Amino acid sequence: MRQIWICWLMVLALVVTATPTGAHEELSDGHFELVDESGQVILETGLVVEVGDQYLAEDNRLYEVTAVQGGLARCRLVETVDLTATRPVAWWRRIWPGSARVIPAQKGRPLVGIYHTHGAESFVPTQGTASVTPAGGIVSVADAMAAAFERQGFEVVRLRDAHLPHDSRAYERSRRTALQILKRRPLALFDVHRDTAPASAYEVEVQGNRASKVMLVIGRQNPNRSANLEFAKHIKRVADERKPGLIKGIFFGKGKYNQDLGPRVILLEVGTYRIDQASAQRGAMELAELMPAILTDVDAEYRAEGRSGWTTALWLIVLVLTIAGAFLVLSSGGIPQAREKIKQFISREFRGDLFGRRRGPRNPL
Amino acid sequence: MPIGSIGLIIAVVLVYFGVAERVLDRMRLSDRAALIFLGLVLAGSFVNLTLVGAPYELRINLGGGVIPLGFIVWLGATAGTARERWRALIAALVTGGAIYALGRVLPSGEPGNWVIDPTYLFGLVGGVIGYLAGRSRRAAFIAGIGGTILADLVTYVANRGAGLAGRSWVGGGGAFDSVFIAGFIAVGLAELVGETRELLQGGPRRGPERPPGLSGVGGREGRKNR
């Protein structure tokens, strides 16, 4: 009976941890303000901000959120990042030919994928409301981006699934769409969203055209974080050179945004619900027009070495082994007893081979 | 590398080397059946079937939907007792209802707002509730997988009822879908909690539901005799 109560407590703990921290809800209206040490606003965004989140601003200053009170997030300057700096590539990337490349060498027409997790997102000045089911204005923005890609000579896998309803399982549904696209092995995969910041945060003029800025979002809970970050930096580096002001910055939020599925999977916040759809479409098209320079640059190399998927996996294995070891020692009453248990376990468990043939007599326990 | 693929590779390696033998034994599965199942899931991930056409499209992935569904039906049909079969069925219904309800009730936040990413969260919820309702390894696995598939179907019916046209999926993520995360978590929990319980009570309890291969050994008396 006690075990049943323990199990129900586990369920309760899950439900409690499932409750979003901080502002507790996605901001359908209103936004967070990130301010630096001097109180100057460095970012306005509808993404819910938490302590530990980071933001690489337009001027390449990297900030980290240190405190959140209501809609105000205080940040500290971590460093100024030089996106053009060349650092030696890690030795292990040199062993396997091509693994140091941000963009792999390719044959034929380059392929990209576009989808939208929140297909109902809309633009108030155009649609009159922030959300339209089944297809909001964001679908047209993603369509415009796909068309711009095709004009640049790309082949586009464009899935228009809306992943309704816009509830807490929306990313679980969009994961299936992302996987369908990834089966075609695109060079890059874009999940197109729009923010809920004020219009002023995203308005920009790019080469004389009124457009919206684009913010790149990278998930921190994601084994491909390092690779996706390098891809995002590569996009920003090229955009800053050719279309300054187009890329708003790179936001590092909690979660993984389906980015665990590949090394060049990026979430884009194209404009905000307070700007008109045409501006957002122009922003998406301006970004797509940069892609030949970004996605064919096979000389771009991983410059910043962070944690890769394999190192994350290694850490997970070490963590699991440590916990299992501690549990074993505690449950068996000491290190010698634990060692004896492991010996018994190995002699008992490593007997079966493929297709069920066994080398010794079967002992079910 | 996706966590799903890391997990699947680890599962295949564990089964191949016989380490997962104990769990499979208690689910009454042979190593061969488990490997064939995992192989079919991987291969079937590349095949999609359309169950209902546009505008209310419903698709099912062979590896992520059809094969696991067939597998749990087979597991249920070959369950030891009628009681276990009923328990597995009820557990799957409870799990499906709970996942659907939680998906609707919990705030629709971005993944960044959650302590656990939603992909893992609903797998965990499916696994925990599947174990609680099913209790046995086999029933927990059936509930984790069946409940997640059921929640997808309920969402499809609800969308259709609300007139929301579009494409819905069952197990569209193939081997990396939350269907499997829920199933494996359910079995893992059943194993962990079950083992702990048996350890606390001094050995497994004998009874008619005990698998034939395990009925004559172990238990309190078995341990005394060793």
Which properties best describe this structure?
heterodimer, A: 365 residues, alpha/beta, 11-stranded mixed sheet, 9 helices, 13 strands, disordered C terminus, B: 226 residues, mainly alpha, 3-stranded mixed sheet, globular
Give a verbal description of the structure.
The complex is a heterodimer of chains A (365) and B (226). Chain A has 365 residues and is an alpha/beta fold. In chain A, 36% of the residues lie in helices and 21% in strands. In chain A, strands 2-1-5-4-3-12-11-13-8-6-7 form an eleven-stranded mixed sheet, with helices on both faces. In chain A, strands 9-10 form a two-stranded antiparallel sheet. In chain A, α8 packs across α9. The longest helix of chain A is centred in the C-terminal third of the chain and has 24 residues, at 309-332. The radius of gyration of chain A is 24 Å and the shape is globular. Chain B is mostly helical. Chain B is 65% helix and 7% strand. In chain B, strands 1-2-3 form a three-stranded mixed sheet. The termini of chain B are far apart. The model of chain B is unreliable at 216-226 (pLDDT under 50).
